[in-house]
From TrEMBL:
Protein name: Methyltransferase domain-containing protein
Annotated GO biological process: methylation
Annotated PANTHER family: OS04G0481300 PROTEIN (PTHR43036:SF2), OSJNBB0011N17.9 PROTEIN (PTHR43036)
Methyltransferase among keywords: yes
Keyword Transferase attached: yes
Domain of life: Bacteria
Domain (Methyltransferase type): residue spans on this chain: 75-147
Matches recorded under Gene3D superfamilies: Vaccinia Virus protein VP39 (3.40.50.150)
C-alpha cells in the first residue's frame, strides 16, 4: 500500500480493519444488491442523463448488475471486478476482466478509448484512489465523465479507515478531492437520495475530463 498519489494523507488513512487481500474476500460470488431498489433507481436515472447512448462504458468494481437503464443501448460495456462468476452473470457486459486495483492500478485499456466510466458503491475500498482515478482519466476520452456513486452501506472491514471515519458529506468531499488530485477538470456533487429520508441514502460525484 502506498499514498504516493495523496502524499498529504497519512498511510494509516488507507489501512483496512481486515488487511487480507481483497481477492480472498471476494473469492465467493455474492448475487445480492448492496443498496435498496429506490437507491438503484436513483443511480439508473443519473446514468440515463450522463452516460452517452451508443458509447463505450467502463463499469469499474462491478458485479452481476450494472444499474444501467435497460432501454439504452451502448456500443460496449466493459466490466471490471474481483469475481469472475459475478461478472460473467452480468447481462449488460460485453466483456470483462478481473483485477485487484489495490494491487495493480494500471488499467488494460487504451488511452482515450472510453466514453464514460462508472463506479457504484465501491470507491470506499480503494487504497490507492489517486492512482486508480488517474488511470480512469487516462482511458476516458476528452470531455468524458466518471460517475462515482456511494451510500452509507459497505463492508466496513474492507473499507479504508478514512472512509469509516467520515459521514456522508465527508465522503462526498473526499471523493471530490480524489478526482481533483487525479486531474479531472470539472467536478459535480449530486445528492440522489439525501440522508435522513426513507431507505438508503445515495450520493454521486461526477468528474469530467478536460475537453479536447
Amino acid at each position: 500500500m502506498t499514498t504516493q498519489d495523496l502524499p498529504d494523507f497519512p498511510p494509516e488513512a488507507f489501512a483496512k480493519p481486515d488487511p487480507a487481500p481483497d481477492s480472498l474476500f471476494y473469492a465467493q460470488p455474492r448475487f445480492v444488491t448492496h443498496i435498496d431498489a429506490a437507491a438503484i433507481a436513483a443511480v439508473t436515472d443519473l446514468y440515463r442523463t450522463v452516460v452517452p447512448e451508443g458509447g463505450i462504458v467502463l463499469d469499474l468494481m462491478s458485479s452481476w448488475v450494472s444499474h444501467l437503464p435497460d432501454e439504452v443501448a451502448y456500443a460496449r460495456v466493459i466490466g471490471h471486478g474481483l469475481n469472475a462468476a459475478e461478472l460473467a452473470a452480468n447481462p449488460r457486459l460485453t466483456q470483462h476482466f478481473v483485477q485487484d486495483l489495490n494491487a495493480e492500478t494500471n488499467l488494460p485499456l487504451e488511452t482515450a478509448s472510453v466514453d464514460a466510466a462508472l463506479m457504484c458503491v465501491s470507491v470506499q475500498y480503494l487504497q490507492r484512489p489517486g492512482a486508480v482515478l488517474s488511470e480512469v482519466a487516462r482511458v476516458l476520452r476528452p470531455g468524458a465523465p466518471v460517475v462515482i456513486s456511494f451510500s452509507n452501506r459497505c463492508f466496513p472491514t474492507k473499507a479504508v479507515a478514512i472512509w469509516n471515519a467520515l459521514d456522508g458529506a465527508g465522503h462526498a468531499q473526499l471523493v471530490g478531492l480524489y478526482l481533483q488530485r487525479a486531474g479531472f477538470a470539472r467536478i459535480e456533487g449530486h445528492a440522489l437520495k439525501p440522508e435522513g429520508g426513507p431507505g438508503d441514502p445515495m450520493m454521486a460525484v461526477i468528474g469530467w475530463t478536460a475537453a479536447g
